[in-house]
Specification:
alpha/beta, Rossmann fold, 6-stranded parallel sheet, 6 helices
Amino acid sequence: MFEGLKRKIGRFVLRRKYLHKNIEQLVYNNVISSAKNFFFVMPSIDNDFYHTLEILKYYQNQKKVITLFLPEHKYNLIPDKEKYKFISFLPHQVTRFFLPEKNLIARLRTKEFDVVIDLNRSENIFFSTISNIVRSKIRISFVKEFSENYYNLQIVDKQGDSETAYKSFLNYLQMF
């Protein structure tokens, strides 16, 4: 009953407290290919999670430094763990307004990345907040409801299945 109200409050706090205003113009020529340090917010849906591993492999082959943000219980699902850095969270670190807990916020505010990529295809206030807490000039995600202010670059997901969506997403990222 109060779920919708909690989400509205969460979005309001996200916009007021964590949203970064980009004053400077960004030139997207080679912005992703020249970046060295990537922060991937892994999807919460299991099927989507497995299909994003191809994106991680691509950037690993490109010799990029990759940090993954994922739930603690999904840590073992990542192959070649030694090639990645991890920031994990526990379910109790999500507040009732779908925002991160203060200790997680403090830990993430010290991090800086060249590119932040949110791989969730559906709206999730928690992951959108995480994407905006870390310092970065470029934030990329799929087009989601209420997310136009949270990301610099959004990619439309016209495909219904996740495998095709993430392949298209990778092809799109390769253009930059």
